[in-house]
Amino acid sequence: MKVDVLLGLQWGDEGKGKIVDVLTPKYDIIGRFQGGPNAGHTLEFNGIKHVLRTIPSGIFHKTAINIIGNGVVIDPVVLMAEIDALIKMGVDIKSKLLFSKRAHLILPTHRLLDAASEAAKGKEKIGSTLKGIGPTYMDKTGRNGIRVGDIALPNFKSKYDALVEKHKQILSHHNFEYNLDEMEPEWFKAIEQLKTYTQIESEHFINEAFQNNKSILAEGAQGSLLDIDFGSYPFVTSSNTICAGACTGLGIAPNRIGNVYGIFKAYCTRVGSGPFPTELFDEVGDEIRNNGREFGSVTGRPRRTGWLDLPALKYAVMINGVTELMMMKADVLSGFDTIKVCTGYNYQGEKINYLPYDYSPELLTPIYTELKGWNQDLTGLNDINQIPASLAEYIAFVEKETGVPITIVSVGPDRTQTLIRSKELV
Ligand code: GDP
Ligand code: IMO
Ligand code: MG
Description:
With 426 residues, this protein is α/β, with parallel strands linked by helices. The chain has helices spanning 16-23, 76-88, 93-96, 108-121, 133-141, 156-172, 180-194, 202-211, 244-250, 283-291, 310-320, 389-402; strands at residues 3-8, 29-32, 41-45, 48-52, 65-68, 73-74, 97-100, 104-105, 198-200, 216-219, 257-265, 268-270, 304-306, 308-309, 324-328, 338-347, 350-352, 364-372, 406-410, 418-420. A hairpin with a 7-residue loop joins strand 19 (406-410) and strand 20 (418-420). Helix 2 crosses helix 7 and helix 4 runs parallel beside helix 6. The relative contact order is 0.16. Magnesium ion (MG) is lined by residues 12-13, 39-41, 297. Residues 8, 12-18, 39-42, 44, 292, 297, 328-329, 331-332, 410-413 line the site of guanosine-5'-diphosphate.
């Protein structure tokens, strides 16, 4: 048995949560491998819409075990709010949710440091979700972090105090006001609650699951173009969002990776700062934003919108070894007479068809191919054979350019609005 990996190929919010939920009945275990509450993974079924932040998107199914892997960073306060909401919905969390002891904790001061750092950057700010992600991963790699397993240690409080002291020192160099006393009680309360959940050594758990022929799906957060190494640095998140992150974030050997499901929107969005070659600043961009309800699931910020960028998509396919593509939000493009797809760029006087090191807007302009749009409302379709011919051509075009089959076409936010093009996924 191999571990399949599902990840976003653009700048996040591709619809990963929806597809994990759709695929969960095929799996015994779902594991989140990186990121933290900067993620917002939306699921819709039976008229319920739910946004998950830290908890894997398999949690609504009766049988699957959901693991928060060592590569994830956890804010106990956000996590407990998330758990409370799920308990209210009748989800049996205790038996289905496991935590890696090696996952790092987001402290209240990590959130303050995130805010102070962004404020200090002014116009150059990353557009962080302000959830403390960057500072927590900095402490992890700086070997100062506090892990879930530490909360059971007798010296937990002194470790906490020592780290907070370091953070206060840094904050004293910023012109930034804060009231830590207001933040700490709920954090420690959430830590006490976290103690009542099962903590595991997820690397052992997962490798034993292999031996027992269990099927495992690793769920990514953010997207490949936000990856700390391969994203549009410095406008990225602070973890490896790519397939390799599933190995380091769950304890999976590279030769255990099976299918790599790459999720992408039929167009592009981005929230926060950073280059976005195909960004639209006109009414077409507004129409995509309104049709697609492109407002952040975590921060509510309007998402920037633009046409599909094939060189960027091909880059993500390459870095991740994507074996199957899943195209989301095809319904949002209904009604445009023509749909543009970027197939290359004019880059410093030269035509190129790959994503270069620096793709700032001053350096490059997209080259577009125009395809015929479709007028039909897709949201009621339940069979891939019912799709309009021009959508079939759009799919074929992307498959030809990327060399990877598109096995799911999503036509609405609900579980049921999912058209499957592969026998293995039925
Ligand atoms: P994630 O972070 O990758 O899980 O994606 P988000 O949940 O942040 O954002 C995706 C948004 O699109 C959510 O509001 C979903 O409910 C919605 N969505 C997912 N798939 C589709 C689709 O095929 N069509 C439409 N119209 N909405 C979709
Ligand atoms: P999901 O999993 C979209 C963006 C932020 C910002 C940059 C860095 O829902 O797809 P951070 O808070 O990580 O330091 O912010 O990354 N960002 C996301 N954008 N979807 C996400 O997650 C994101 N997580 C972070 O907007 O530009
Ligand atoms: Mg999201």
